[in-house]
Structures are given as structure tokens and as C-alpha cells.
Amino acid sequence: MSSTIDLGIDLGTTNSAIAHYQEGNVVVFKNPINLKETLASVVAFKKDRIIVGDKAREMLQKSSQNVFGLFKRKMGTTETYLKGDSMETLTPIELSSMVLKELKNFNHKEVTTDSVVITIPSAFDTIQSNATKKAGYAAGFKEVVLLQEPIAASLAYANKSNLDISDGKWLVYDLGGGTFDVALTAIDDGELKILDHEGDNYLGGTDFDKAIIDQFIIPELEKLGQFDNLVNDLKLATGKYNRLYYKLIFLAEEAKKMLTTGTVAEIEFEITDDQGKDLEVYLELPRATFEKFIAASIDRTIELIDTIISRNELSQTDLKCILLIGGSTYIPYVREKLKAQYGIEMNTSLDPTTAVVIGAAYYAGIKPKRIKPTTTSTPTNIVPSKDFKLAYERIVRDDSGLLIIAAKRETEGLQYRISRTDGGYDSGMVAMQAQVTLDLPLVANTHNGFLLQIFDAQANPCFQEEIGITQGKFSIDGQPLPNNICLEVDALENQTTFLEPIFKKNDILPLRKVITKQVSQTILKGSDQEIVIKVFEGDIDSIPAANKLIGMISLSGEHLERDLVKGSDVELTLEITESRDLKVAAYFTLTDQEFENTFSSSESNITKVILLAELQSFEANLNQRIKVLEREGNYEVAGRAMSIKADIESLRTTLDAVVEDQTSDDFYILDVKKREIAKQMQSVFNTSFLTKTIEDYYEAKNRTSDWLLDKDAIEADRKAFEDATANEQKLLRDGNITAIKMKMNQLSTISQRIARRTPITNDDIEMTYMMIKFHPFVEQERAQALIEKGDEALISKNHNALISVINDLSKLKSQEGNNDLFKNKGTGLK
Amino acid sequence: MQEHYTSLCQIINQIHGLEAKLSGEQASSATERKFQRIKKSFEEMNLYIYNPIGEDYSETRLDCEASIAGDALTNLKITEVIKPIISVRTGNSNEIIQRAVVIVEGK
Predict the structure, then answer these.
(1) Burial of A353 (C-beta count, 10 Å sphere; 0-12/13-18/19+)
(2) How far apart are CA B83 and CA A254, in angstroms?
(3) Alpha-carbon distance B43 to nearest alpha carbon in chain A (angstroms)
(4) Residue A199 exposed, middle or buried by CB count within 10 Å (0-12, 13-18, 19+)
(5) Residue in A62, A246, A270 nearest the CB of B103
(6) Cα separation of A437 and A119, whole Å?
(7) Which of A42, A334, A647, B43 is 20 to 30 Å from the Cα of A584, by its Cα?
(8) Within a 13 Å sphere around the CA of B95, how many CA atoms are in the beta-carbon half?
(9) Closest CA to A737 of A813, A676, A823
(10) pLDDT band with cut points at 50, 70 and 90 for residue A168
């Protein structure tokens, strides 16, 4: 355990912070709830709740009864604050101790919090200093060491920005949100001391924001519209523009920040004037104009510096530098004005909002502890968990979750706090009761983590428990989806289709998803070209025809208000209710048209026309396949294919006999048989063609790999190759022929890309021709004529003519060897 | 983490401003749809955008930084959202990276 204090606190008038020194480094602790490094020095009381920080500051402008800020100015006085709804009075010491207790909660590293260094303004007298110490003790610290803020800032600069403070005098210029302080600092007899100081408790950054509103926005608004009493209407709580006023405060602060880096800030908002005219206000605030607004305030700070300089009989050359602290010193005009006035170095290398606390921690890091370390901080005196019982539902569907805390022990002096781990909710410190019932707000459709802490009278945690509540996602009465739901999309490379998963098996109903697809072929308005949205239930890895069609929207050019161009977006919304009704909506962005349909799970969408078309397609593919198998002598597979063909013919006969308006149940039964046939086809041919497809894949991979060795291959090609082959093992193990073929196409694209960059030799052309001329062709006569031309060109060494012949022959190449079993006209979606 | 998303948050804030400007009675369904698509694209990057307009407000809500307009201090409602809530969701973890900047008023 460390023998030095290590912990430093900047107990500021408007903001406070806490930092820790460890092995030469200082870490500013962040608020675990909102991850900010500073805490607003404001305390609010609401019923039995104590709120410290930003949330209390929100209420400060509205209520003087239960919200208290700026109490640091009253430290050491007898002034007390009366809580509006009770007769209880609070001293500045008590309020400061509440801020200190809150800062202790930032301590996430579980460092000891027995001893602390707390900074005070250089203007604080002995009584004010003692009051600050008392606040520290009231917050549970056993040892409190005070340090003047300018000294802390000087230490921070000395340690973090190599400021040489071995000799000389310098100024610490502290311009914060609401106050200004300046201190003359020096090394005197080897000790860092404040020689003199001045300040103004009513000068700071918030005055600059208000100047932007009063001197710029309001006059501009009065030029743009007609307003009878704009200032009152903005600033009075009952004014009709009071809401806008708070927006303007925000916009003015943003503009001020913008002007720290830019030369012009934009301010945009809307307002309706007294004549009912809507105004879209756009204002440009130049930095030079802003500087005019704040010039008087900055001149005031210079006056105070000059007072110090003359009182101490110094000349400007006696000053080594000016250290800038406080958020308002980010303003370039402040820096420029000081530099122009004093012509000395301006040190701005540290974050001016945390320089004081960093310096306090450095000091704490060298200051030995006087008290004997006794306890560790978090949690200190943990009580047995049986002392508090928690009850809550882990899975809820409401937007809030109920938590009951039952105390099995005395609760006098105890406080609890519960916060959501995403930083969206914090109860504040609340007095503990024998039983507490809380409604915890939940983020929809996700897991919500909470941390419950119970604190003793010294604000040390004595009990804590993590709570997890899942909202919406896993309803206890929600049904899991029994099968995958997929969308059929085109694999254009091989004129087939494949299934893209939309919802996965065991997802909990109801479900909704919006996906964007592209139109894969242009559909002309009024034409009979179609786009078909088919939703299937079943196995993602199987072909679409082997799955159950549960919803389909078929749209032709007749439905369109203008041409649907290839590549334009289709936004599909798919919803499945708990009763498993499927709703499909398709929105075409180009035509701004929406089509939707709801399909009940009890209704089949199968029609005679669809089934017949599918069976015809199966048969055509089988015929082609059987021809190839017989030529290759693979009579066993060909025989099994013949048997399937017989089943198809039988099913077609049955289907032919069914009248068009037959009840959907009959079509459903026929559809089941069709799917069984599709599965059989896939099973028979997959076994037969998978090996060949894998061989083709390896060939494509090796060919591409060879091309990568070519001097014209670039890094992007290598990266594309790595991406294409990344999941090779899984791809081949799954055995999805369509997926393997798509991967082969990717590899071919890479090799073609390299080939296009590589100059072709005459030998390459002749070799390519010799390979292609012996290939089977679909139009044999035409092919023969081309080959004769090619032979002539070969003899005469006319390589241009030979390239032309190669191109023409390529188009006539027979596709017999193509193994795509379920080639079809596609869906029109990709 | 938060620094990493600063630029994206700025883009989202601009989109939010645009959406607020274009919403209301004049808004077409196509415009609203485009905003939904943009949000969906951000969700694919694990960034969730939430507009708390019209919701109840109390000091326990840390997902909003509020300015209170009017007289009321209790029974508050969010009447204007200058910046939306942005959170990053990965698996079971949800982290707010931008708190909403809102104006609240009595109901």
C-alpha cells in the first residue's frame, strides 16, 4: 500500500474533478455514469433523493428552493441554505461534502480514499480553508491536505509540459465558466508560493454565451421579423419563445466553440414572428464580431493583472510566462490579447479544465500520509448479501422493469444508488428504506445492465450487486421460429438462384427486418417482364425449389409507373407475426411505388401455373443432364435421373387433371411432392457433380494463384484472392454447388483483371485458338466456317483476325458441361 | 471509443437536423423512408439512433442533457430534440456515446 496520499480533488466553484497519482503518472477519474472528467458542483434535493452534478445543474436556473450551486463562494460564512420543502437548513460545508462524496464514486480503481489533497482558491482565508477541510472530513476522508489552485496548476505544467519552475515569477490566469482568478506565483526560498492574487466572481464563459444572444442574435432577429417584445418573450418563463431561448443558449455555446478553431460560426434555427410569418434564420457570426462582444470582459481581466503587477512593483519583463487554466482560455482572443499586452510566453499545453486536479494529484503523489492506512476503499465494509434481498424479472416486455429491494437490517443512515451500465439512467443517492420499489427504465430489445450500490453514512459502498434485465427480445411467451425464412435472389453468374437468409431458425416471433436489394434486370414500363419476390421456409443451404414457398409478390412492367432500371434499389420489409402471418412489402425507390401483401400461414400461395412451370423447368434440366451422363458413361446416375423424371411426369399428369380453381390444400399436397422431387434431384446430382465442381474450384484457384505471380498483379489482387479463399474449408464442406460456383467466379474475375493488364504475345493468341477450336459448339456449321477463317489467319500470322475468330467462337461454345442443375430465368432481384 | 465515433456522430446530428426540418405535415412517406434507411445503415455499423421526442423527462434520465423551458420543474416532457441519443450496441453490451440535447417543458 502506498505511503503517499496520491489522491487529488479540485473542488471548484462550478465544476469539480478527482485524479489519482500512481508511479509517476496521473489519471483523472471519469464519472462512471456519463464518462465525463468533471462534475458540476451543484446539489439538488428532490423528495428523498440527492442529486449531484449535471442533472442538478439542469434544475439550477429554475429553482432556488431545492437546488444549490456556487456555495463554494460562501465557504467559511455563517450563511445557510434552506431546503424549500422542509425546514432543514444546509451549510456550504455540507453541500461541499456531498460533491466530495460524489467524486469518491468516480474511484473505479479501488484506490484507498482515507487521505486526499483538496485545492482551494488563493483568496481563501484560514476560516474558508478550515471549512473546506471540514467538508472533506464530512465526506469520509480521514486526512485532508489543502493546496492552492494556482500552485496545483503550476505543478501540473511543471510535470506535464516541462515548464521550468526552478526560478522566476509567473502568472496563473484562470478564466472559467463563471469566475476569473489570477495569481502571481514564484519560487521563494525554495518553496512554491502565491505572492499575490486578484479575481472577479462574476466573469466567465457563460457571460460570453449570453453576449452572443443579447448583442447578436436578438438584434438580427429584430431585423428579420416583427416582434413586439422579443427579449421578454425569450427570457421570461411564461414567454412564448422561452423554449427557443434555451435552444439559443445551446447554439451560442456551440458557436463560441466553433470560433476557437474557425473564423466564422453558423447559427441556424426557425421562429414564427408576431405577424405569424415563419422565419428560417441563418446567421453567420464572424470571429471578429464575437471578439468585440467579449473585449470588455477580457480588458477587465487585464486590469486585474495590471493591479497585481503594479502592486508588486514589477515590470512585464519580470514575468516568465502566463499559465492558462479554465475552459474559457481556449478562446483565441484571450490568448492573443494577453500575448499582445505582455509579450511573454503563453503556456497552453495542458487541458485547461483539468490542469488543477492533475497538479493536485502530483502533489498528493509526493505528500506522505500522516494517518496509518486502515481500509481499502471499494467496497470497504461489505455486509453479508443476506442483509438485502432483491426481486426482479430478468426478462420483461414492458419499457420498464420492477425492482424490489428488501432490507433485513437497520437502514438508518444508509443510502442506495442504482445506475444503468450504458450510462442512460441514474437514481442519484436515495435514503434507504426497509423496502424500496423501483421502476427501472429499459432500452428496448437488448440486455440492460444495472449496478445497485448501498452506501454507509460515510458514503462508503457496503453492498453492491449487478442486475441484468432483458427487454423485449426474449419474451417468455414468444414462440421460436421453427425454420429459416429466406429470400430467393439471383446468382447472375450462372443463371441460377439461391436463398439468402432473412430470419434464422429459433429467432423469437414477432420479427421484422428491412433489407435493400437491387433490381437485376431492367423492367420496362408496360412490358410483361417480371420481378418476383419469393420468400421460402426451409434450409438455407438447399436450392430454392426444395423449400416451401410461403409468400410471393409477382410484379410486371404493367404495374410500374416508369421503367425500373437495373441496379436500382428495392427496399423489402418482411414481418412475421406471432401467429406466423408473413407480410412482405416492396418499395421501389426509383418509381416511388410500394407493393405489399400479407400471407397467412394457413393459406397456400401455390398455383397450378407456378407448379407446372417449375416441373417443366425440372424436366428440361434433367433431360440435358441425362444426355451428358450417358455420354460420359455414368449410367448409374443417369438411371436414377430417369426414375426422377418418371416421378415428374406422373406429378404433371396429376396436376393436369386438377382444375384451376381447386382448393389450395390440393396444391399444397402437390407442392410437397414437388419439393421432395427437387430434394431428390439435388441429392442425386450433388453427389455426382460436387466432386467435379470442387475440382473446377481448385483449378480456378490454382490458375488465379499462378496469375498472382505475374509481374502485372497488384496488392489489391492479392487481397481479393485472400478474401475469396478465406472460408474455403467451410465452403467445400457445406457442399453448396451454387455457392462454390459463385466463389469460382470471384477467382476468375481476379485472374481476368490481371490478364487485362498483361500484354498478350502472339504465341498466347495461337495457343488460345488451338485450345478453343476443338471445343464442342452449339452451332456446328457456323463454328466450322469460323475455324476455317481461323486456320487461314494462323498460317498467314494475322493475329488480329485470329483474336476476332476466338471471340466469335467463344460465343458459340456449348454449355453442355455446365453443371447448374436448377438454371432458371431468375427473380429479378440480386 | 467515443473519439472513434466523433465524425459519425456529427454526421448523424446533421441528418437529425435535416429530418426535424423535413418532418411534420409536409413530410412525404418517401422522405421518411429514406431517413429510416439511413438509420438502418448506421445500425448495420452497430450505431443506434434514438429520438426521445415527446417522452417523459426526469432528472434520473441520463441519456439526455436537458434545458428546462417554462415554469414547471416536475411532470416534464421532451418538446424539442437538438441532438439524438446515439448508442453503440455489440452483442449484449449497449453504450451511449452521445446523450441527447433536449428542451423539456411541463406537460
Answers:
(1) buried
(2) 12
(3) 11
(4) middle
(5) A246
(6) 40
(7) B43
(8) 12
(9) A823
(10) confident
Answer whether A499's CB lies under 8 Å from A487's CB.
Answer: yes
| Residue A425 contacts B, CB cutoff 8 Å | yes
Q: Which three cell numbers stand for residue A716?
A: 489489391
Whether residue A280 is predicted with pLDDT greater than 50 in this model: the reply is yes
Q: How many CB atoms lie within 10 A of CB A299?
A: 11
pLDDT band at B49 (very low <50, low <70, confident <90, very high): very high
Q: Write out the H or E segment, with its range, that includes residue A657.
A: helix A635-657
**Distance between CA B46 and CA A279 in Å, rounded?**
37
Q: Does A428 touch chain B (CB under 8 A)?
A: yes
Beta strands, E only, A557-642? 569-576, 582-588, 593-599
DSSP-derived 3-state class of residue A107: coil
Q: Is B31 on the interface with A (CB under 8 A)?
A: no
Q: Average the pLDDT over each of A24-28, A103-107, A383-387, A579-583 and give the range with the smallest value.
A: A383-387
Cα–Cα distance, A466 to A390 (Å, whole number): 11
Q: What is the CA radius of gyration of chain A?
A: 40
CATH of A385-471, one of 3.30.420.40, 2.60.40.10, 1.20.1250.20, 2.60.120.460: 2.60.40.10
Mean pLDDT (whole number) for A586-591: 85
Q: Where in chain A is the domain with CATH 2.60.34.10?
A: 484-605
pLDDT recorded at residue A361: 93
Strands in chain B per DSSP E:
47-50, 56-57, 64-68, 76-83, 85-90, 93-98, 100-106
Number of domains in chain B: 1
Angstrom distance (rounded) from CA A239 to CA A242: 5
Nearest to B69 among A243, A446, A587 (CB): A243
Q: Which residues contact B8 (CB under 8 A, 6 or more apart)?
A: B42, B45, B47
Q: For chain A, give every residue range classified as CATH 3.30.420.40.
A: 7-161+350-366
Range of the domain at B50: 3-106
What is the CATH number assigned to the segment(s) A7-161+350-366? Answer: 3.30.420.40
Q: Residue A232 has what pLDDT?
A: 92
State ipTM. Answer: 0.80
Contact B82 A34 (CB under 8 A): no
pLDDT at A665 over 90: no
What pLDDT, on the 0 to 100 scale, is given for residue A615? 85
Res A822 pLDDT > 60: no
Sign of the torsion formed by the C-alpha atoms of B36, B40, B42 and B43: positive
Q: Tell the residue number behind the cell numbers 434464422, with chain if given.
A: A504
Tell me the pLDDT tens digit for each residue of A593-640. 888 887 765 445 567 777 888 888 888 888 887 887 788 787 888 888
Which CATH class for the A484-605 domain?
Answer: mainly beta
Task: Write out residues 582-641 of A within 8 Å (CB-CB) of B.
Answer: 587, 589, 592
Half-sphere exposure of A111 (CA within 13 A, CB side): 24
B44 to each of A170, A308, A513, A540, B40, how far by Cα in Å?
54, 59, 12, 22, 6
Nearest in space to A155 (alpha carbons), one of A344, A355, A298:
A355
User: Letter for the amino acid at A557?
Assistant: G
Beta strand pairing status for A345-347 and A400-407? Answer: unpaired
Say which of A46, A247, A514 has its CB closest to residue B59. A46
Does residue A240 sit at the B interface (CB-CB below 8 Å)? no
Q: Determine the 3-state secondary structure of A567 from DSSP.
A: coil
Determine whether the interchain pair B67/A592 forms a contact, defined as Cβ–Cβ distance below 8 Å.
Answer: no
Q: Which amino acid is at A488?
A: E
H-helix or E-strand containing A407?
A: strand A400-407
- Of A33, A59, A516, nearest to B59 by CB-CB distance is A59
**Three cell numbers written together for A243:** 423554449
Most confident among A245-249, A743-747, B23-27 (mean pLDDT): A245-249
What 3-state DSSP class applies to A669?
A: helix
